[in-house]
Amino acid sequence: MSFTQDIRDAFSRRDNALNQLIILNGLVFVVLVVLRAVLHIAQSDATYELIRRQLELSSSIPVLLRHPWTLLTYALVHEGFLHIIFNMLNLYWFGQLIREYLGDRRLVSLYILGALAGAAFFLLAYNLLPVFRAGIGLPVIGASAAVTAIIVAAATLLPDYTFMLILLGPVKIKWIALVVVLISIAGLNGGNPGGEVTHLGGALLGFLFVRQLKAGRDMGRPVVAVGDWLGNLFSRQPAMKVTHRATVPAGRASAAKASTPAATPAEEVDTILDKISRSGYESLSKEEKQKLFRASQQ
């Protein structure tokens, strides 16, 4: 199977959002690396800078108005291998938790909303706060705002979930999220204040996303609606089929229903809890974890 076929297969699956986000970031990174090398050999570095400016987010409002798509594209562009590796590892580790408990659609919504929140904080800081105004026109790139949103959302959702860290051993993710936020605050007077500001915007969004979700309000619903609209716009509607079903006598149908009673939500939760007591939490399937989370909201 070819490399391109592997990518097509990854994007054809609907339950593969985490891998799709990682692959998309990786593809953009590889394309830009190759393009930069080719243009450098051709002694056309200025062309590469022009292309990258079409993707990075500028703190200048007039530039943003000419490139509105950069509110999202900046979150797919990385500078250097360590930059993308660090972001993608965090996206993978914490994104798995969001995907297991909240599903693929909410993971994508959280990524997009985190990027937008980071962009909003970046633009507000550089255009309203005097300490940043000297940097008007500076750009920002990277998925850090979106990834920070996912880290803080996972910590808000499962504060006592434990990761095994090298040299440190077991650490609850609420402390990992706290350290990430504190590092961003400390970096505001460092060499990359714009990037740190976007992290804080993503962190706030991740916290609010889960808190609102627990209150019964899904902040990601507009993102899902736009995604569905775009999906319907670019996909063909299947032709309607007319099928004939054999009719079942009313008495026999009611008897069949009576013979297979549906489990109530309370019974399903009890079954899941029994499974945890027998085999541990990690034995649960993705659907069982999502049912358990939904039951905890009621």
TrEMBL record:
Major site of localization recorded for this protein: membrane
SUPFAM superfamilies xref list: Rhomboid-like (SSF144091)
Keywords: Hydrolase, Membrane, Protease, Transmembrane, Transmembrane helix
Topology in the lipid bilayer: Multi-pass membrane protein
Protein localization: Membrane
Protein name as it appears in the record: Rhomboid family intramembrane serine protease
All copies of domain DUF6576, residue ranges: 267-297
One MF term in the entry's GO annotations: serine-type endopeptidase activity
Keyword hit for tRNA-binding: no
Record Gene3D superfamilies: Rhomboid-like
Residues in Peptidase S54 rhomboid domain copies: 67-210
Pfam families: DUF6576, Rhomboid
One GO BP annotation of this record: proteolysis
Keyword Hydrolase: yes
Transmembrane residue ranges: 21-42, 71-95, 107-129, 135-158, 165-185, 197-213
GO cellular component: a single term: membrane
InterPro entries: DUF6576, Peptidase_S54_rhomboid_dom, Rhomboid-like_sf, Rhomboid_protease_S54
Family that this chain belongs to: Belongs to the peptidase S54 family.
